[in-house]
Design brief:
This protein is an alpha+beta fold and 599 residues long. The strands form 5 sheets. An 8-stranded mixed β-sheet has the order 10-16-15-14-11-12-13-17. It has a 7-stranded mixed β-sheet with strand order 5-3-1-6-7-8-9, with helices on both faces. A 4-stranded mixed β-sheet has the order 22-19-18-25.
Length: 599
C-alpha cells in the first residue's frame, strides 16, 4: 500500500468497466477548476479521451456535445468562492452552470471533502455498479502528491445499513447556497440508499471499509481511536490538532508534512515524534502548487497533499485516508471533511507502522526534516478566505438588459456591504468568457448597495453566471470565481447563442451530432478547416456509422435523444441552418421526425 510508483489521474477513476457506461457522477471538492470541469465529459464517455487535460482555448463542438450528454447526471459540489478562474473559457460554459453547486459548511469552516460517487450501468440491462473514490485531491489540475481509496461494488446487501457516505449525500442539498433542483435532490437520495446497500469488493489483505463524515453537524469532530502507535501524514498542521490526535496514543513513531508547516508548528513537534519527515521525491516526478484551504510558500517543486492517519493497536493496523488535515478546523469539526478507514494489517505486513518507511512504500520519497538553526521564519501569506466569504454572502446576481449593439450586464448586490472596499481593494469583475482587459470596477458600487455595470456591451454567447473577481491583496492579486444567477434574459436564449458560436460550419455540426448520438470516437477527431466537405449527411469513415444510421438507430433505441438534436437545430435561424447543413440532411431530418411522430 502507498506505493509512490503507482499513480493515477482523476480520469482513470472515471473510466467505465468493460461493457458499461457512466450513468451519473457526484463529486465533492474544496476547490474546482473550470478547465478541469470542462474536461470531465470526454473522460466520462470514452476510454482514452479522458487521459488528457483540455487545453485552454481548444474546446470543440464534440466537447460541447459530450458536456450536453452528461450535464443532467453530473453534480459538482465545491466551497463557495473556491472556483478557480480559467483562461479562454468557451461560451459553452453556460452548460456547466447548473452542474457546479457552491456550498457552505454548517459550522462556519470550509467545505472540504474530496469524494466521488459514480454509478455505471451495463448496456441493455438494469445491472449497475457503484464506484466510490475517497481522496485528498481537489478537482483541479494541481500536480501535488495525493492519496485516495477507490471502492467498487454491485450486489446489494440483504438489508440496508446507514453509513456516513449516505449521510454526506443527504447533507448536500441543505448546504447549497442556491437551491438545488428537485430532480438533483432525488438523485442524491437515490444514491444515498444505494451506497448503504452495496457490497464492496476488496482485496484479501484489506478489511471492510468504514466511512467517516466530519463536521456534518454541531460537535461532529474527528474521534481518534485509542492506539499503541500513531503516524500522521498531513500537509498542513496546527498545535491544537496535534495535541488532540496524539493524546489517544502511547507512541508517535513518525509524522510527514511540508517543510513550512513543520517549521511553523515545530515547538509542538520537537521531541514528540520519533521521526519528522518531508517529501523528497526523485527529480522529474511531478510539480504542483498547493490546492487546498491554505496557501503555502514555495516554488514549483512537488508538494505533499495527502492526508493519512495510521494507527496500530493490539497487533492490528488501521489506516484512514481522505480530506482531513491535522489542523484544528478539520479535526474539531469546523470544516466538513470525509475519511475512509480500513484494516490494513495484512497489507502492511509484520513491520506495522514503520513499514511505511520501506523502499517499496514511502521510504523512497521521504527524508528526515532537519531544522535550520536561526532560520528566518517565513510570515504566513494573507488569508483571503474571509474576504471571499464576505462577497459570497453579498447576495449577488447578474442582470442583463438588451441594447442596440448587444447586452448590458450589471452586477447587482442584495444590500449594501461597506466592508468590501476594505476587504477587497480595487475589486473588479467580468464573466469568465471575457479577457481581463474587459473587467469592470465594482467595489464602490457594491459598498453602497448599487449595481455595477460592466463596460461596453456583450454578445449573448458571452454572458455566463461564472463571474471572475479580482482584487489587490497584500501578497498579490486575490482571484476567484463565483457561480451567480443570471436574470433579464432566458437561459435557453443564452444556451442557443453559445451553441451557435461553437457550430459555425457543417463539420463542427457533424462532430457535435455524432457525439450527441453516441459516436464517442468523434471526441478524438482532429478538427479540420471549416467547410471541408464533412457535412452532416456524409457517411461515416471506415468502421464508423454515418449520420443517417446514427439517427435511425437513435429513433429506434433512444427516441428521447432526438429531442436533444431537435433542440440543437432549433437554435439556428433558417438562414443559419442552411449555412451549416445540406439540403440532403434537412430532408433526412424531416423524414426522421415524421417517422418518430407516427410511432
Amino acid at each position: 500500500m502507498l506505493e509512490p510508483q503507482r499513480r493515477s489521474s482523476l480520469y482513470d477513476i472515471l473510466r467505465a468497466p468493460g461493457g458499461m457506461e457512466l450513468d451519473c457522477l457526484v463529486a465533492t471538492t474544496y476547490s474546482a477548476s473550470l478547465d478541469t470541469v470542462l474536461s470531465l465529459p470526454a473522460a466520462m464517455l470514452v476510454d482514452g479521451a479522458g487521459g488528457r487535460m483540455r487545453k485552454a482555448g481548444t474546446f470543440s463542438a464534440a466537447d460541447l456535445a459530450a458536456l450536453r450528454r452528461v450535464v443532467s447526471r453530473t453534480m459538482v459540489f465545491c466551497q463557495g468562492g473556491a472556483i478557480h478562474p480559467a483562461e479562454l473559457v468557451p461560451p459553452s460554459i453556460i452548460e456547466a452552470e447548473g452542474m457546479v453547486h457552491q456550498v457552505a459548511a454548517p459550522n462556519g469552516g470550509s467545505f472540504h471533502p474530496k469524494v466521488w460517487i459514480m454509478r455505471f450501468r451495463r448496456e441493455d440491462t438494469s445491472r449497475t455498479l457503484l464506484r466510490v473514490a475517497v481522496m485528498s485531491r481537489n478537482l483541479t489540475g494541481d500536480g501535488s502528491w495525493d492519496a485516495g481509496v477507490v471502492l467498487e461494488g454491485g450486489a446489494a446487501l440483504a438489508r440496508r445499513e446507514r453509513n456516513d457516505l449516505g449521510d454526506l449525500l443527504r447533507l448536500l442539498p441543505g448546504l447549497c447556497i442556491n437551491s438545488l433542483p428537485r430532480d438533483r435532490t432525488s438523485l442524491l437520495n437515490e444514491l444515498a440508499g444505494e451506497v448503504e446497500s452495496v457490497r464492496w469488493k476488496l482485496p484479501p489483505e484489506v478489511g471492510r471499509p468504514a466511512f467517516h463524515l466530519v463536521g456534518g453537524g454541531p460537535g461532529a469532530g474527528w474521534s481518534q481511536p485509542a492506539s499503541e502507535r500513531l503516524a500522521i501524514i498531513s500537509p498542513f498542521l496546527s498545535a491544537t490538532a496535534i495535541d488532540r490526535l496524539t493524546e489517544t496514543t502511547k507512541q508517535t513513531p513518525l509524522i510527514v508534512s511540508r517543510k513550512d508547516a513543520i517549521e511553523a508548528c515545530w515547538p509542538s513537534l520537537d521531541g514528540r515524534f520519533a521521526r519528522t519527515l518531508v517529501l523528497s521525491p526523485p527529480d522529474g516526478t511531478g510539480d504542483g502548487d498547493a490546492a487546498d484551504e491554505a496557501v503555502t510558500a514555495g516554488g514549483r517543486s512537488p508538494q505533499l497533499h495527502a492526508k493519512i492517519l495510521i494507527w496500530e493497536d493490539r497487533g492490528r493496523v488501521r489506516m484512514a485516508i481522505g480530506s482531513m488535515n491535522a489542523t484544528a478546523a478539520a479535526v474539531l469539526g469546523k470544516n466538513v471533511e470525509f475519511m475512509v478507514s480500513l484494516d490494513c494489517t495484512k497489507a502492511m505486513g509484520d513491520a506495522g507502522v514503520e513499514g511505511l518507511l520501506e523502499r517499496g512504500h514511502l521510504g523512497s520519497v521521504l527524508e528526515d526534516f532537519a531544522p535550520e538553526p536561526n532560520a528566518e521564519r517565513i510570515a504566513p501569506r494573507f488569508d483571503d478566505r474571509p474576504a471571499r466569504s464576505y462577497l459570497l454572502n453579498a447576495g449577488l446576481h447578474l442582470h442583463c438588459t438588451a441594447a442596440a449593439d448587444g447586452w448590458h450586464v450589471d452586477l447587482v448586490p442584495g444590500a449594501p456591504h461597506a466592508d468590501i472596499v476594505t476587504l477587497l481593494p480595487g475589486l473588479r469583475f467580468r464573466p469568465v468568457t471575457l479577457a481581463s482587459i474587459r473587467a469592470g470596477a465594482c467595489a464602490t458600487e457594491l459598498a453602497r448597495g448599487e449595481p455595477a455595470r460592466l463596460p461596453g456591451t456583450l454578445d449573448l454567447s458571452e454572458i455566463t453566471g461564472f463571474v471572475f473577481f479580482e482584487a489587490d491583496g497584500p501578497d498579490g492579486p486575490i482571484a476567484f470565481t463565483l457561480n451567480l444567477q443570471v436574470r433579464g434574459v432566458a437561459e435557453e436564449e443564452r444556451r442557443h447563442a453559445a451553441l451557435r458560436s461553437l457550430l459555425p460550419d457543417d463539420r463542427s455540426l457533424t462532430l457535435f451530432l455524432r457525439v450527441l448520438l453516441g459516436d464517442f470516437d468523434a471526441l478524438d477527431t482532429v478538427n479540420g478547416p471549416p467547410g471541408d466537405g464533412a457535412g452532416p449527411a456524409q457517411s461515416g469513415a471506415a468502421g464508423r456509422s454515418g449520420i443517417l444510421e446514427l439517427l435511425v438507430r437513435c429513433a429506434a433505441d433512444e427516441p428521447a435523444r432526438l429531442r436533444s438534436v431537435e433542440q440543437t437545430l432549433s437554435a439556428f435561424s433558417e438562414a443559419e441552418l442552411h449555412m451549416v447543413t445540406s439540403t440532403e440532411f434537412r430532408a433526412l431530418w424531416a423524414a426522421i421526425l415524421q417517422a418518430a411522430a407516427t410511432k
